Amino acid sequence: MTWQEKIYRVSPVIIQNIICNLEGEKIYRRRFSKNFFELFNSIKERDKISQDEMEELQLRRLKRQCIIAYENSLYYKDLFDRYGFNPYKIKCVEEIEVFPVLTKEEMQKDISKFINRHIRKRDSVKIGTSGTTGAGLVFPVTKECENEQWAVWWRYRHNLGINFDTWCANFGGKVVVPLKQNKPPYHRTIYRFRQISFSMYHLSEETVKEYFNVINDNKIEWIHAFPSTLSYFCSLMKKAGLSFEHKIKYITIGAESLLPHQEKIIYNVLGSRPLQHYGLSEPVANISQCEHGRLHVDEDFSYVEFIPVEGNPDCFHIVGSSFTNDALFFLRYNTNDIVTLEKSEKRCPCGRNGRIVKDIEGRKYDYIVQKDGSKIMILGHIFRNMINIREVQIKQDKSGFVTFYVVRCDKYSYEDEKILKEEIEMRFKIDYAIEYVDEISKTKRGKHRLVISELANDD
Ligand SMILES: [Zn+2]
């Protein structure tokens, strides 16, 4: 936890609101710069370009990145030379498939080798990521890269009918309200983003009415949430006999897969279908659901490969190469997420070219049960700045108690353990133990599971 977070936690609500809005202003200025809006317009225009134009665009962008990587990073200079790969003469994007797939663990070992040595510090920002294995990675992205990522996400939102001035009720993983606070408000309003940010950690049978009232009184038409949080909210609303007086026009979800039973309860209670996009901090793949409900690969954003999972012909790893990040190039980077593909060749009525994904498998999250009996969703999110953790698994065999199995990197120290404990205690009402292990076993599908619950399933 940073000192800013510590101050935030002990401040009164009014000060927290001011801090949220100051921070919001800072992020807004960076994210929605003049450059963003210029990019946004051109990215909207290339949404429905022809297959040939797309291939030409991909080759041009990939070639540019390969040249930058070759000229400015130790890792790619060495890799390309070893394979006799000439980035100036690349003729088709598939040529890069000679290289081995890159894992997060490999980058974690020595990230400096991957970084563009000539990029100026002030031209990039550092961001953190975790994903489903719990391994943390902090890496630089250029402002252009961040702008493009947001522009692609906003293109998807625009296609659904959402505008920059649409107010949003947001249920995210951030601790916006300190866990110790046990009275409303359970949200903070960030005016610049037109966003009411709710605490998913305080949501319960006792508090659901507070959440409901804020959305209802302000007639918020757009809800963005994790599917598990939103379906939990909907089941609490149903139990309490609550229904909104206005229409919830847009429901967008992210960070994890939408399960059929979740979709059903969300639709039953809110009356609109949730739509999703797949994206991650590493700018290597983006998949957007269109107005017809199909999941389209954003082929203009990065070069995405679907690599078959051994022993499972229906499942594919998402492996991607970025087009945009001049600060650090991701080439054939394994996201650790898995998809199934649409077999039929039929085009989507929306008219977009490119590949269609049937289901994003890789992002199913689980719950743990806390000391007071309430359930809380576990996200890799909490480990995202913990760069000295290689993998984590969370195991629960009795209510209110959880064991964290941690695979450490060489640089892991007492300080890291302290941060891990703080992160756990800030978010969860549980007793826990931390155990250090050498490795974590994988599922039959080769997937790392973040949470193993051995409690009787009462769903
Ligand atoms: Zn479509």
Topology:
Elements: H1 3-10, H2 13-31, H3 34-45, H4 51-72, H5 74-82, H6 104-109, E1 124-129, E2 137-142, H7 143-160, E3 168-172, E4 187-190, E5 195-199, H8 208-217, E6 222-225, H9 227-239, E7 250-253, H10 260-270, E8 274-279, E9 286-289, E10 295-297, E11 302-309, E12 312-322, E13 333-341, E14 356-360, E15 367-369, E16 375-377, E17 389-398, E18 401-408, H11 414-427, E19 431-436, E20 451-453
Parallel strand pairs: 3-5, 3-6, 6-7, 7-8, 17-20, 18-19
Antiparallel strand pairs: 1-2, 4-5, 8-9, 9-10, 10-14, 11-12, 12-13, 13-14, 15-16, 17-18
The protein binds zinc ion.
Give structural notes.
There is one protein chain. This protein has helices spanning 3-10, 13-31, 34-45, 51-72, 74-82, 104-109, 143-160, 208-217, 227-239, 260-270, 414-427, and strands spanning 124-129, 137-142, 168-172, 187-190, 195-199, 222-225, 250-253, 274-279, 286-289, 295-297, 302-309, 312-322, 333-341, 356-360, 367-369, 375-377, 389-398, 401-408, 431-436, 451-453. It is α/β, with parallel strands linked by helices. Among the domains are: 32-155 and 279-360, Rossmann fold; 367-453, GMP Synthetase, Chain A, domain 3 (2-Layer Sandwich). The longest helix is centred in the N-terminal third of the chain and has 22 residues, at 51-72. The chain is globular and about 65 Å long. The chain binds zinc ion. Zinc ion is lined by residues 290, 292, 294, 296, 348, 350, 352.
What's the short story on this structure?
This protein has helices spanning 3-10, 13-31, 34-45, 51-72, 74-82, 104-109, 143-160, 208-217, 227-239, 260-270, 414-427; strands spanning 124-129, 137-142, 168-172, 187-190, 195-199, 222-225, 250-253, 274-279, 286-289, 295-297, 302-309, 312-322, 333-341, 356-360, 367-369, 375-377, 389-398, 401-408, 431-436, 451-453. It is an alpha/beta fold and 459 residues long.
